[in-house]
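hey so i finally got around to running both of the ones u sent me last week. sorry it took forever, my laptop kept dying halfway thru and i had to restart like 3 times lol. anyway pasting them below in the order u listed, first the sequence line then the structure token line for each. didnt double check formatting much so if smth looks off just lmk and ill redo it

first one:
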Amino acid sequence: MSGKFQPINRDTPYLLPPSLQDWLPQKHLARFVVDIVDQLDLSELVTRYGGGGKQPYHPAVLLALLFYGYATGVFSSRKLEQATHDSVAFRFITGDAHPDHDTIATFRKRFLPELEGLFVQILVVAKVMGVFKLGKVSLDGTKIKANASKHKAMSWGYAKKLEEQLRREVQELLRRAEQADTEDEPEIDIPDELARREDRLAAIKKAKEEIERRAQERFEAEQAEHEAKLQQRKDNEAKTGKKARGPKPKPPVAGPRDKDQINFTDDESRIMLS
């Protein structure tokens, strides 16, 4: 990790309890948020943030702090700062460090557009992993009777609609960021198979890789088919001595299409039309 940032140390041993890792149950929301944030691409924030008179907090810490706070109803920078002293979950997220409210507020204001996109990424990854709620943010937990559940098999069209819904959720959270809005304790619904951190990290990685692989696989196949059509058209023109009639085949567009489906428990399963 870059030397210009304060180190993120959640493994320093203590007497009671012996380690930060012992402060929270394995299925706690704070652990889940940290695990996802640690695997996001934060290179832009890392490059642009810092450079002041002292070693800054790593963007991963501030991003996880903001997201967990907003997802659990802690919106104001002052209350987020106070929570890093009062709340075990917030202390776990920050590695028992205490960013002041000015640092938190400045970071939020400076990277507001990037934060919105990153918050949506967190929610999309959580949805693909089969999580129904992150704090107060609902991710739609409807199930269907099948070998695999509906929340782990989705068309890209549905995924886009879900992302729009999640973006609205994020915008609402960011809108309330200046308010001191106290809510109930967070709800969380993480499958039992994701309770262990090792399994959770593997599932996050698999979800991200599968989303990217399916899109690239389809594009490469369609690109090869497109090139074959162009070559056939060229061969026919050479054979007949005439220019081929009709427009040239359109090149494929990278990225998933509305009817593409992905599933992480059963690759053969598909959502049935009602």
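and the second one:
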Amino acid sequence: MDHLNTLIRLLDDPDHEAFTQVSNEILTLGMPAVAPLEDAWFQTSDLLTRYRIEEIVHNIQFENLYSEMSVWAASGAHDLLRGFIIATKLQYPNLDEEKVVGDLNKLIRSVWLELNENLTSLEKVKVLNHVLFNVNEINGTVADNNVPDYFFLNTLLQTKHGNALSIGILYIIIAEKLGLPIKGVDLTGNFIACYTHLASDFDKIIKPLSVVKFYINPIAIGAVFTRKEIVLYLEKAGIEPTENCFAPATNSTIMKRWCTYLMQAYSDNGMQAKAKELKSIIGIFN
């Protein structure tokens, strides 16, 4: 720690080459250097030193996020909630994960209290829709895909307002935690969900024709529709259908879509440095 404090004291050196050397050495220390750097920021009134501390802290936090996301993707991306929390830390590096999970668990419990095993698939979706969109008044529009603030899990849980990606991912996470077989669908030009058949359904004499029972549009307060309506949507938009437009997507594909849309939102809002960071994160999923 003494060595770190010595390095921090050197951050006011006006020589850029000397600063670069000090900065690189601090970066190698990783996340343990963040708290002492933040303390030093409050203890100095020198604007150059404060700017340099902010830059170093941001770089450390981004490298840590990149590492976390890489590990999550490489290990199978099984927990979509974990991926969404990591992604949210792009904007909120000091995210209170415990609070986020606590707020989410309240939503999950409120849905769970209304469910029972005697309900059909459609009835379960109606319960989920009722609790999320009527009781908790979660809302948003497709137009909000261009507003960076509406992408993040913590702001969605706090403000009840999101966009097609954040609301869709929240919908899927809650369903997964409740044991409902709802997955994301990487539909070109949109983001939807699907209610899938259970593996046991394919053991029957009359087997389902598709793994998907029906589709759900979370941004449209959970409206239910069929494959035929997706085909009509694609035809109207002049988009060539691919199997990805109909099949359940992996969690990695979902987070890649989230990053891609947020990157575009940052770019459209003139936040090019943020867009560049998203491009780097997207590379993890390629």
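quick thing i noticed on the 2nd:
The longest helix spans residues 47-74.
anyway thats it, ttyl
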